[in-house]
Amino acid sequence: DQHRPLHGKHVLITAGPTREPIDPVRYIANRSSGRQGFAIAAAAAEAGAQVTLVAGPVHLPTPAGVMRVDVETALEMEAAVHGALPADIAIMVAAVADWRADSRAEQKIKKQKGDALAPLELIENPDILAGLAQHEKRPGLLIGFAAETEKIEEHARAKLVKKACDWIVANDVSGDVMGGAENSVHIVTADGTEIWERLPKPEVARRLLRKIIEEI
Ligand code: C5P
Question: Which amino acids does the record list as binding CTP (predicted)?
């Protein structure tokens, strides 16, 4: 009906950072707060969708009507995303760590006086968005995010092609967007680019949902 335009649709969303352990007490992560992804999950639930939100470690309450799966690492996030399929729409908002430590030390790595620092060997994490684009259960509408600090549209369009998704929501993170309350986005699709004014993250979420509803 009119008030629940996404009724019967499953929307899969990733949000937040991932946390890649080095040893029992240390990890690699990033400044993502999860706020934009959580706002999108809330807006999708308000539009009547069945929402699965795969969340990295964040300090945010679960939006009403959203089924949340908490994960820590990129590999766990990938498994949770695959486990949640099929989905009609997937919106990959998480800031997935590009790398993880090649091996996780069983015990806390000790500082040793006079010794050279042991190098930290990193390996690449899987690209969850690109993997979903090639998956046999690829969602009908697949949306990625891209945090950029320069040449926003050019970089976003290159990602759209490389990752074979349908839209890229590019945000300019050169200022205080990461972790902040507002977002400044470009929506890059095969049809062209929309530039939205700087808006509170919940408003970006509502507008994005409106655009999704028009599309499907
Ligand atoms: O290449 P970049 O990390 O900028 O791409 C960002 C987009 O790709 C986001 O939608 C992010 O959620 C997704 N991504 C992913 N898995 C990764 C890296 C990025 O799903 N390992």
Answer: 98, 108, 126-129, 145, 159, 163
Q: Read off the pLDDT of residues 107-150 as tens digits, 9 standing for 90 and up.
A: 998 877 777 777 889 999 999 999 999 999 999 999 999 989 89
The protein residue whose alpha carbon is closest to atom 6 in ligand 1 is 146
Please write the tens of the pLDDT for every residue from 40-71.
Answer: 999 999 999 999 999 999 999 999 999 999 99
- Asked if 5 contacts 43 with a C-beta cutoff of 8 angstroms, the reply is no
Q: Burial code of 183-194, b = ≥16 C-beta within 10 A, e = fewer?
A: bbbbbbbeeeee
Q: Cα 159–162–165 angle (5° rounding)? A: 75
Q: In this structure, which amino acid lies at residue 42?
A: A
Label residue 23 exposed, middle or buried (CB < 10 Å: 0-12, 13-18, 19+): middle
Nearest to 212 by CA among 65, 28, 51: 51
pTM of the prediction? 0.94
* ipTM associated with this complex: 0.96
- Does residue 92 line the site of ligand 1, with CB under 6 A? yes
